[in-house]
């Protein structure tokens, strides 16, 4: 049963938009962790197995479970689940590896603010798919309302920057201040060892004998889908708490694995827009909040210092 979590709202509302509150360092060092990037490569199928169809990706789930730290003692993992294929496969891998998983759907939509832009609820399908995936895997799903935090710490900052001629990336801000900021602070005392998501990235954690060493963000196996740029502003206290099970898998392999796992959303298309806008065009959003300014467009392609 879906339970709405209304208590995970720790951030104070502030019109001054200060930077994200520094996350407290864990009271104890992380448990020994086998770096995701050291996972063994995908093993070939045995000789007796039938040949795959042309263009198909053939592999077995037990090989990919290694990407979810299968050789570790069971962990308590909070998994960010969006309803998309990537986060669903990440959840399934961690669950198959024997970890105790709880899925969290972060609701950051502003349907009240954009009621004239759409007639349907923009996050309804996402939540239905997330619930269907959790029902199939048999893990609990919690819904966390963070729309106020998102507005105060991401959207308002972005609008102010656009007014001043700067163009921050909202996904970088969301990862730093919301997904691995406000949410991480909210569950700090709930006993979870790590937070996991469906990002295409690696986090290589220090060995147990050097627990105070840095956790290192590295490129994923899929260089096209790699998302380390959007995670590049994360701090050490944030990185030390993260798992990215898809870091050693390509997008094609994720799609094939979703079919193999028979996930309810296996055929769902990837989202393309900015997460909080849904079907609203970003240009419409900017125009609504900061208006338009007249000016001269220089299309000569000449820039000072380039000749």
UniProtKB/TrEMBL annotation:
Q: Quick check: keyword Transmembrane helix in the entry? A: no
Keyword Transferase found: yes
Key words of the record: ATP-binding, Disulfide bond, Nucleotide-binding, RNA-binding, Transferase, tRNA processing, tRNA-binding
Q: What is its EC number?
A: 2.8.1.14
Domain of life, per UniProt, equals: Eukaryota
What GO annotations for molecular function exist for this entry? ATP binding; tRNA binding; tRNA-5-taurinomethyluridine 2-sulfurtransferase
Q: Which principal EC class is assigned to this enzyme?
A: transferase
Reaction catalysed?
Answer: 5-taurinomethyluridine(34) in tRNA + S-sulfanyl-L-cysteinyl-[protein] + AH2 + ATP = 5-taurinomethyl-2-thiouridine(34) in tRNA + L-cysteinyl-[protein] + A + AMP + diphosphate + H(+)
Tell me a GO biological process for this protein.
Answer: tRNA processing
Residue ranges spanning the membrane: these are: none
Q: Which SUPFAM superfamilies match?
A: Adenine nucleotide alpha hydrolases-like
Pfam families xrefs: tRNA_Me_trans (PF03054)
Q: Which InterPro entries match?
A: MnmA-like, Rossmann-like_a/b/a_fold, tRNA_2-thiouridylase_MnmA
Q: What does this protein do?
A: Catalyzes the 2-thiolation of uridine at the wobble position (U34) of mitochondrial tRNA(Lys), tRNA(Glu) and tRNA(Gln). Required for the formation of 5-taurinomethyl-2-thiouridine (tm5s2U) of mitochondrial tRNA(Lys), tRNA(Glu), and tRNA(Gln) at the wobble position. ATP is required to activate the C2 atom of the wobble base.
Could you say which protein family the record assigns here?
Belongs to the MnmA/TRMU family.
Give the protein name, as stated in the record. Answer: tRNA-5-taurinomethyluridine 2-sulfurtransferase
| Species per Swiss-Prot/TrEMBL record | Aegilops tauschii subsp. strangulata
